[in-house]
Amino acid sequence: MELAKKEKFMIEKKEDTSIKAVNTITMVTFYMGDFLFGIPASKVMEINKEIDITPVPLSDEHILGIMNLRGQIVTVMDLTKKLKIDLKITPKLNLIVKDEGEAPVSFVIEEIGEILEIEPSKLEKVPDKLEGLSKEYIKNVYQLPDRLLLILDIEKIIKE
Amino acid sequence: MNFDEDILQDFLVEAKEGITKLEEGFIELEKDKKNVAILKELFRTMHSLKGAAGFFGFKTLESITHFSEDILSKLRDGSIELEEDVVDILLKAIDYIKYIISYIEENKAEPVEDKILDFLVELSNFNEKLKKRIQERPIEKELEVKVEEKKETIEEKKEVKRVEEVKEEKEEVIVSSQVELAETHIKVDIKLLDQLMNLAGELVLARNRVVQLSQKTMDEDLTRSVQILSMITTEMQETIMKTRMQPIGSIFNKFPRIVRDLAKTLGKRVNLRLEGTETELDRSIIEAIKDPLTHLVRNAIDHGIETPKERTELGKPQEGNLILRAYQEGGQVVIEIDDDGRGIDVEKIRKKAVEKGFMSYEEAEKASEKELLNLIFKPGFSTAETVTQLSGRGVGMDVVKANIEKLGGSIEINTILGKGTNVKIKIPLTLAIIPALIVASKDYRYAIPQVNLKELVNVDPDKDLLKVGNTEFYRLRGEIIPVLRLSEVLKENGRSQEQRNLVILNTGERFIGLLVDKIFASEEIVVKPLGRWFKNIPIYSGATIMGDGKLALILDVVGLSQFVGISVEEVEKAYESTSVKIKTSAQETVILLLFDVGEERFAIPIALISRLDKIRENEIKISGGKEIIIYRDEVVPIIRLENYLPLKEAPSKESYNVLFFTEREKTCGILCTNIVGTLEVSPEVEEGIYTHPGILGHRIIDGKTVLFIDIYKIIEMYDPDWFIVKVGKEEKTRRILLAEDSPFFRGMIKNYLTSAGYEVEAVENGRQALNRLSSEKFDLIITDLEMPEVDGFELIKEIKTNPDYKNIPIVVVTSLAGEDVRRKVYDLGANSYEVKLNREKLLEEVERLLS
């Protein structure tokens, strides 16, 4: 009996680790005001400091302009405007995100956070009480020990 | 056999691709025997190979592909199973096809070898065998069990036999499959080329930086190396660009056959001429214009060129002419399809437009020839009375237009009924690299495609621009051009520097002026698309990376023209009305400036006024007995209308408005008490009540009588020597016949011609003109186009076909210039084409033609 129980436990444990090994998602995180946002690392092409943005007059408010990324024209977006966060940021970094089949898109950010491994099973729905930004572009939230990580719905942000 | 080298080369490339596809397909098929999609693909590939072989008359190849195709079709339909023997024979067939292709590549002819013929027999036998197998099948089902055993043995026997066969020929096959197809052409993904081009662009930038650095260090060895690097970079960039270019001949050459076949089917005789086949175009564009061109050529033969019988009756040569012409014109490639067939009946389109509900009756009546011809490009609009099999093939003209526009090109039709049709396609040389003018607004640079550029003018915005309402205009040789300020379009805040650079742009339909802060040089730019966020901003067509690595937006001129203000739409309409073919001048419009002198209201075409300004009474000085003002360092004589027209004297005011009139660098000002505004009206006036020199007539506008003044006459009354362009007193006064239905224009033109020393007979339409011509002698004819009864077009035709008057020069006058009309009147035989209100130019032309 004892042995059987132990064995079962072992199996369970084994399964557990295997899930972890296969299924964690690496997240690139960054701060905007008090919010911590995450984007799957697989979607991030690069982060660079070259902020030479050419404005495109008449474009939407959340579009800062375009920039030259090694011969590609990259559209630069201000996420605070897109997410309606009441915050004025000083662009310091370009977080360059892939856009399937199109030229990449850059989000200007002030400060990059840690690179985190998260477990998809622990992703939660966006809570109603979340305030101070437009929730439609947040796909999920993820509880970190000290704060809440907001996972951005990159496709939606880019496509709309 | 003699083939065009290019076509054969194309065939070989295609065949090699086909072989690769077939080989890959079979490998796939072995994994998944029931995959119908692969079978279908294999069948199609084999089928096109067969077609091509048949076209070139490669009989053996055709036979092999024919039998293989047959087998594949059975597989596809499921009537036979994919058994080992079937795969083997098909693979063997591919080996032979490969062998034949490589032989053709070397020898330009098919091999005649026994082993190939033997294989052909084998293939044919096998095919027969399969047919029997299919016939056996239903019986198999009925007698399933009984036959099963028997069948197996048969199969076994066959198997053995087949193995033997294979063994016999194995060596041969190996020989043939070892033949390496020498690759002279390979297919490369365009994306890869794009990427290469991007990288080359980057390399250029990196090179530039290195060059700068090396100049600082002044190291001789380094400088030399950098020079070499620089040269190689340039050469590499050019070569990469070349990889995308192809002569248009590669598609033009396909047309002789298409035309021949089509003409034969339709019982017509067509002589096709290809011109400019060496014109180079971006490969992707070449591919994309193939179908539209084919469609247009079909149309020309089907609807354009008449049957030999009809042509004989019309006095045309039996053989119709079709010309495919390509040439470069200002960074664009123009392709023309020109036929001398029956042309397009614009009146028929007009009728059809109403019938089919594309236009209301009124719209159709007013519609210009261009507008009507454009209907051909609307989905669901076809003028052919019966849709023939040929032209009714799926793609319509709407698709043709859409495809061409997708390439950034344009298409236009010009036609003369009974004489032929010319379709002109303009497409960019390459989608990737265009010459552009670099301009600046504030701190950023913008690129304007050279194709849209007409000219650059240095202006003084305060002096040279005329402001009406909120819109500014510039007068460029008699034409009114609306002006946009780039900084305002871009909604850039803050005070702009003084903008003196006016870029005149051609949108294809009209001209607009764009005031910019700075103009840099013209550069070749690499066009890069903008992201989807900018699609709804009409003023950009892309972006480009400048030499310093910074970006510049490329301006879309058509998009920009949308920013021309509402009040200018009136100007626009006036523009369009020039190309509008209407019956009388009643629909022709002019933009009038209304102003008051004392209590009287006057009107004058705004195009005649160079600018408007206010002056103070005390600025008016007397000099040499005449009133003058000093205006921008220039002495400008002032004319008071009341001195020349029977008016009450205007009360003295503190300030006046002055209308400036400039001709031949001489300016005078007309004093008025009040500017009322502008109005777009037809130039109709009533004559009779106010018959005073200097007044063309009157009209009631907004309940008030408005007098139309003849400024030329008034200035002449003021100073008879003002317009001295003395023709020199000749022995004999030259006689001019003027046909113009609008009394307004008639009066004005007649006046200035008379004052220039000509004897002018004015008539109201073409019919009257013809009557006069039959009884009197004239040295020159000036005609309007839109007139009742007999219009200008008909008049020109009549004159030019009558041996008695065909040598009299004809000047066509119109209210504003339009390219299609110009072309048409010249085609009809007119000698000159001028704008009515441009007196100076018209007089010059008259003088030229009479000398």
Automatic annotation (TrEMBL), chain B:
<dbReference type="Pfam" id="PF02895">
    <property type="entry name" value="H-kinase_dim"/>
</dbReference>
<dbReference type="InterPro" id="IPR036097">
    <property type="entry name" value="HisK_dim/P_sf"/>
</dbReference>
<dbReference type="InterPro" id="IPR036641">
    <property type="entry name" value="HPT_dom_sf"/>
</dbReference>
<dbReference type="InterPro" id="IPR036061">
    <property type="entry name" value="CheW-like_dom_sf"/>
</dbReference>
<feature type="domain" description="CheW-like">
    <location>
        <begin position="433"/>
        <end position="566"/>
    </location>
</feature>
<dbReference type="InterPro" id="IPR002545">
    <property type="entry name" value="CheW-lke_dom"/>
</dbReference>
<dbReference type="InterPro" id="IPR008207">
    <property type="entry name" value="Sig_transdc_His_kin_Hpt_dom"/>
</dbReference>
<dbReference type="Pfam" id="PF01627">
    <property type="entry name" value="Hpt"/>
</dbReference>
<dbReference type="InterPro" id="IPR036890">
    <property type="entry name" value="HATPase_C_sf"/>
</dbReference>
<dbReference type="Pfam" id="PF00072">
    <property type="entry name" value="Response_reg"/>
</dbReference>
<dbReference type="InterPro" id="IPR051315">
    <property type="entry name" value="Bact_Chemotaxis_CheA"/>
</dbReference>
<dbReference type="InterPro" id="IPR011006">
    <property type="entry name" value="CheY-like_superfamily"/>
</dbReference>
<feature type="modified residue" description="Phosphohistidine">
    <location>
        <position position="47"/>
    </location>
</feature>
<dbReference type="InterPro" id="IPR037006">
    <property type="entry name" value="CheA-like_homodim_sf"/>
</dbReference>
<feature type="domain" description="Response regulatory">
    <location>
        <begin position="735"/>
        <end position="851"/>
    </location>
</feature>
<dbReference type="InterPro" id="IPR004358">
    <property type="entry name" value="Sig_transdc_His_kin-like_C"/>
</dbReference>
<dbReference type="GO" id="GO:0000155">
    <property type="term" value="F:phosphorelay sensor kinase activity"/>
</dbReference>
<dbReference type="InterPro" id="IPR005467">
    <property type="entry name" value="His_kinase_dom"/>
</dbReference>
<keyword id="KW-0808">Transferase</keyword>
<dbReference type="InterPro" id="IPR001789">
    <property type="entry name" value="Sig_transdc_resp-reg_receiver"/>
</dbReference>
<keyword id="KW-0418">Kinase</keyword>
<feature type="domain" description="CheW-like">
    <location>
        <begin position="589"/>
        <end position="720"/>
    </location>
</feature>
<dbReference type="Pfam" id="PF02518">
    <property type="entry name" value="HATPase_c"/>
</dbReference>
<dbReference type="InterPro" id="IPR004105">
    <property type="entry name" value="CheA-like_dim"/>
</dbReference>
<feature type="domain" description="HPt">
    <location>
        <begin position="1"/>
        <end position="104"/>
    </location>
</feature>
<dbReference type="Pfam" id="PF01584">
    <property type="entry name" value="CheW"/>
</dbReference>
<protein>
    <recommendedName>
        <fullName>histidine kinase</fullName>
        <ecNumber>2.7.13.3</ecNumber>
    </recommendedName>
</protein>
<dbReference type="GO" id="GO:0005737">
    <property type="term" value="C:cytoplasm"/>
</dbReference>
<dbReference type="GO" id="GO:0006935">
    <property type="term" value="P:chemotaxis"/>
</dbReference>
<dbReference type="InterPro" id="IPR003594">
    <property type="entry name" value="HATPase_dom"/>
</dbReference>
<keyword id="KW-0597">Phosphoprotein</keyword>
<feature type="domain" description="Histidine kinase">
    <location>
        <begin position="187"/>
        <end position="431"/>
    </location>
</feature>
<feature type="modified residue" description="4-aspartylphosphate">
    <location>
        <position position="784"/>
    </location>
</feature>
